[in-house]
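User: Show me a protein chain along with its predicted structure.
Assistant: Here is one chain, sequence first, then structure tokens.
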Amino acid sequence: MRELLWVAAGTGFIFLMTCLGSAMVFLFHSQSNRMLQTLFLGFAAGIMIAAAVFGLLVPAIAEAETDGGVGWIPAAGGFVLGVLFLFLLDRLIPHLHPETNTREGPSSSLKRTTLLVSAVTLHNIPEGMAVGLSFALAAQHSEVPSMYISAIALALGIGIQNFPEGAAVALPLRQEGMGSAKAFLVGCLSGAVEPIFGLLTVLVASFIASYMPWLLSFAAGAMFYVVVEELIPEAHLGEHSNAGTMAVMAGFLLMMILDVALG
């Protein structure tokens, strides 16, 4: 029960940060700043890369080696499975990307808003899983307090990147003419999947604890897919590609510092 409370708090925090980012639509109106969106997307990408490496892959390798296994096998295997999982969802679920206005997945008559929510929901699934698994791993090693600190650092980092991510969802909607309140609601709703998948993941992990290295790497692979497939390309649209690149570096640096300093 205590483990679930930790996960609820961690995923609740990252969901709240998504909502706070979406609230940027009340400050920036119809003429959304493209440079701002570029910085937001790049920063989010950098944090997700560092979170996947330092918060998921490194603990997965360490956990496998502690159990007497070969660290790189579950790390590589789980990573590949996570990439394939997001790849399949990307192909099977109709969605639309606001930055490029392109539809992906099967043909669908769903409304544009629904497709936008689907796109961001795909992005947020691995984030909820990552936070849930991190706290589940900490609960399995409750005698090591630093594991909880590492889980908190991961939740903090993902929460920080969810702020610009929420803004990157809501601002384009507002720019297209959607009302501020509705754009905020859609952006906020896009993060609701994180607490759901975080809690579901920790419940599953309690039954298959021996596969924790695979699960951690799975979440890392899914996060990398989102970064490479969506965030980095969208951060380099238009004429501000250098700004997007530097934002990626800044996000990575911040998450690395958080993980090492707090962990």
